[in-house]
Write a structure and sequence with these properties.
about 120 residues, seven-stranded mixed β-sheet, about 50% strand
């Protein structure tokens, strides 16, 4: 599985960003996808995950109501719409894929991208 993220950047608190992840090399029907993040010196934390086809979505409590995960069923691109960003959202965000959503939400997926930096000031 190859995952490539984009869309990170620097924003002020209260701002918005949308992350994208282009995936290739796997069978969509056998995987869940999602995002986890890691700030310097801190543990990985799951942010959101989605079952292929979008039937189920899961969010970390810290982002509920602010972040939305979605997937374009036509090409499989994964998105994370982030609104009302807070300084504590600052981290490297990784796109992830795994047969088990729990692995993604624990920040331990079988496949991940190289990450995209989000900085909120």
């Amino acid at each position: 599985v190859q995952l490539v993220e984009s869309g990170g950047g620097s924003v002020q608190a209260g701002g918005s960003l949308t992350l994208s992840c282009i995936a290739s090399g796997y069978t969509f029907s056998s995987c869940g996808m999602g995002w986890y993040r890691q700030a310097p010196g801190k543990e990985r934390k799951g942010v959101a995950a989605i079952t292929i086809g979008g039937g189920r979505k899961y969010y970390a409590d810290s982002v509920k109501g602010r972040f939305t995960i979605s997937q374009d069923n036509a090409d499989g691109t994964l998105y994370l719409q982030m609104n009302n960003l807070k300084p504590e959202d600052t981290a490297m965000y990784f796109c992830a894929a795994d047969a088990m959503l729990g692995s993604i939400l624990r920040g331990l997926p079988s496949s991940r991208g190289r990450g995209t930096q989000v900085t909120v000031s």
